[in-house]
Amino acid sequence: MTETVSGPTARKGKRGKGLKIRRINTTAGVHPYDQVTWERRDVVMTNWRDGSVNFEQYGVEFPEFWSVNAGNIVTTKYFRGAVGTPQREWSLKQLVDRVTNMYTQTGRSNGYFATDADAEIFDHELKYALIHQIFSFNSPVWFNVGTAASQQVSACFILAVDDTIESILDWYKEEGLIFRGGSGAGVNLSRIRSSKELLSSGGTASGPVSFMRGADASAGTIKSGGATRRAAKMVVLDVDHPDIADFIETKAKEENKIRALRDAGFDMDLGGADIISVQYQNANNSVRVSDEFMNAVEDGKEFGLNARLTGETIEKVDAKGLFRKIAEAAWECADPGLQYDDTINNWHTNPETGRITASNPCSEYLSLDNSSCNLASLNLMKFLKADETFDAAHFAKMCELIIIAMDISITFGEFPTEKIRDVTKAYRQLGIGYANLGALLMATGHAYDSEGGRAIAAAITSLMTASAYKTSAEMAAVVGPYDGYAKNATAHNRVMRMHADASDTAKPAASFDKAILDLANKTWQECLTLGEASGYRNAQASLLAPTGTIGFMMDCDTTGIEPDLALVKFKKLVGGGSMQIVNQTVPRALKNLGYQAEQVEAITEYIAVHGHVVDAPGLKPAHYEVFDCAMGERSIPPMGHVRMMAAVQPFLSGSISKTVNMPENATVEDVEQIYFEGWRLGLKALAIYRDNCKVGQPLSVSKRKSEPETQEAAPVPAVASQAPQDAHRPVRRRLPKTRSATVTRFDVAGAEGYMTASTYPDDGVGEVFLKLGKQGSTLAGVMDAFSMAISVGLQYGIPLESYVAKFTNMRFEPAGMTDDPDIRIATSVMDYIFRRLALDHLPFDQRAELGIKSAAERAAELAGQDPASLGGELDPVELAQSAAVENTATTERVQQSRSAPQSLATPAAPAAATAEPQATPAAGSARLSGPHSTAELIEFQQGRTADAPLCLTCGTKMRPAGSCYVCEGCGSTSGCS
């Protein structure tokens, strides 16, 4: 993609070489915007809990292939200017122009390009890649670049604190400045003397844990990005610090305090009135462990805790006991994590400048004190070709383009302090990474926890870092190596050879990853040759970030290195509302595994209802592992996450933002094993999260279920509460003597039958009669009685979707193939009957929630079209209304029918009888009962609470993204950028 040629440059007033930029995706003479069909949309964001409007902007412009969710999040998060003013951005073109024009202008004026033509190609390629969601810069770039604000481009910062009160107060101030800019910071407090040491005045020192209290309060007050999310921070303490035991127990003790206060009636939910009385809640804590300590744990020896000023050993402790204390605290509240000090510094390219002592809040950026890193992530699914192979050459070229852009950003970027500015500009740390690995593996039929899956991840990561450093060497030949390279050249080149050797010794599992690895090895050799000659432009190049908000911007199914969260997710609809769909990687995976179209349809339908693949019709048990997810019926075991991290770690400059999920019944011994194996396998950092170990969760499902049962009933008009009690009794609505009806003949595994469904004049089925078996037989009598019961229930107002949810997927003979092209396989006659009724009488969005779609709709999905636009056999006006009206109430009725029997005493109104959108419900709103995000959907399917916070902006339950959380509704994060 690039090569060094003679040309103009502006470096230090000399003329030298420039980069020749080759086209990757664009065409000469055609602007990338002209290759896209654009459309106008309205963005209205509401809080589903109370119906209030959080944001609205009309007529925004996006490419037609961008999802509603991606457009909404970019509009609300990244468009600049006051809403309703002419200065407000309204098009993705404006946003991309604002950012990329700054990159191109800076690159041109600083000699990065051989000619103006190369600068134009760079500009067009960057614009193309961004509007086609091939990659994204980190959030601060979109927030700040090209605006009147500070041009802060870095998302990750590492600070330094010395053993003076002035340095400690500077730490508080610097963190506040970083939080205000929408970023996060980490710090190691090990230089601060312990509470077991004396001050020069003769008194006893406070110790780092006490100063953590002040920093925590500051972080809780200065919300990151101006109250858009909680502050993100990391606090690290070395394992040989005399106060290490107090540090380990800080958050575990506070968790016990939360339990006690909660049980006493205080509001301890996240954001609750009383949670601010609890300390140490705004930071992730990590213990920095050495090989000496881990060896002592393994050998059962004592380990010394050393004074900070003199270095003398103050106390000796049992290493196993201290390691156990770490595991117990992590088991109890998920903190502390571990950072493996010797491994980190063994891969350090700048040891002559100083050791790596800390990380950013999510542990993926590891570098010098008082430094920063800007990030960018590629969408791996964009490189999966039509023949289901990975386009390694295209991927490598895009890595080259992105690294050039990222380095240019350091040239024009601004920083919160002079110390950070000086170190960052001298060492130019970058963090290229990727997202959608989990989706890529599943789509190609590879299990996440498998040798094949790990081999693919390792090969891609190796190629990414090799391409990044090769381009860094090319830039060094043009605009010079980073300022600290000369002092660290020997160490830097040693680490480059370590990366190359790791790639050379990696073993491919199949032809899929062999082609990628071969190109990676070739690129590493070119990189080493160029680097030896010219040095490197960047001290660090790669890491794996959580890709929270930008993952949604790129329409990624999975974030960072994570597997799929679940097989079913929520999709936002044009005009408002959402629907539940099976992840689109599932049918693609089934096709690649050799399943026929009919089998794919049947399995996908099963997943839509159950949320997992266990006992899916026709799916081989050997293929279950391909569909294992982070949560759900078949969740990836904790060591599966650790093994994946270990596979890619040798090919990263930095580390990996990822939390190892552990089940609630995991033991302290399990935590010990995970932490020990992380060290043995060569990880740089590791954190665990045991389900439901946190108490301070906001308004969880378990709490909702404990509320009065009246809250679960369908909403009724407010005036009804003053009416006599018998006013609540249902009224039967009989069909007229002359009514329209549909007769369906069906065949399920050779058993023939007939179904007659009669409808009201204003639509809505009100009567069903079934004929199965000979007249006078027991079966025929039972079917007649069943038909009357269903018909009376429909006429008393029980929604058809409630019956559909109850009776589909019932399993008994006869079961098997049918003669209906829309329902190829039925698990019973009841399963077939109610699927057919749903297809004939329910709108698409309601059926989609239950996984019931026609053959044409499923074919449209496989072709990448919107199945809702087909219309089926429904009235077009009704379809338009159902797409425009928020379907929250429908979701509630369906979920209530799954979790509790319907009572004729409190029926929900039939869908056909409600022509208007659901207004704000009465007190005790049933809006709280239905799922509004993937995380909540998993809760309903599993029957337990998912341990994740609610979004403080829109009220939706968030989902994990690395070691943070991200909101599917509005893109807000709990700290990651």
UniProtKB/TrEMBL annotation:
**CDD domains in alphabetical order:** RNR_II_dimer
Question: Which residue ranges does the record assign to the Ribonucleotide reductase class II vitamin B12-dependent N-terminal domain?
Answer: 43-133
Q: Where is this region: Disordered?
A: 700-733, 887-931
Q: Identify the InterPro entries for this entry.
A: RdRp_reductase_class-2, RNR_2_N, RNR_lg_C, RNR_NrdJ/NrdZ, TSCPD_dom
Q: Residue ranges under compositional bias (Low complexity)?
A: 713-725, 899-923
What reaction gets catalysed by this protein? a 2'-deoxyribonucleoside 5'-diphosphate + [thioredoxin]-disulfide + H2O = a ribonucleoside 5'-diphosphate + [thioredoxin]-dithiol
Output the GO biological process annotations, alphabetical, semicolon-separated: DNA biosynthetic process
EC numbers on record? 1.17.4.1
Give the signal peptide as a residue range, or say none if absent.
Answer: none
User: Which cofactors go with this protein?
Assistant: adenosylcob(III)alamin
Q: Where is the composition biased (Polar residues)?
A: 887-898
Where is each TSCPD domain found? 739-839
**Sorted alphabetically, which keywords does the UniProt record give?**
Cobalamin, Cobalt, Disulfide bond, DNA synthesis, Nucleotide-binding, Oxidoreductase
Q: Which GO terms describe its molecular function?
A: cobalamin binding; cobalt ion binding; nucleotide binding; ribonucleoside-diphosphate reductase activity, thioredoxin disulfide as acceptor
> What is the purpose of this protein?
Catalyzes the reduction of ribonucleotides to deoxyribonucleotides. May function to provide a pool of deoxyribonucleotide precursors for DNA repair during oxygen limitation and/or for immediate growth after restoration of oxygen.
Q: Which PANTHER family match?
A: RIBONUCLEOSIDE-DIPHOSPHATE REDUCTASE, VITAMIN B12-DEPENDENT RIBONUCLEOTIDE REDUCTASE
Mind telling me what this protein is named? Answer: Vitamin B12-dependent ribonucleotide reductase
Originating species:
Trebonia kvetii
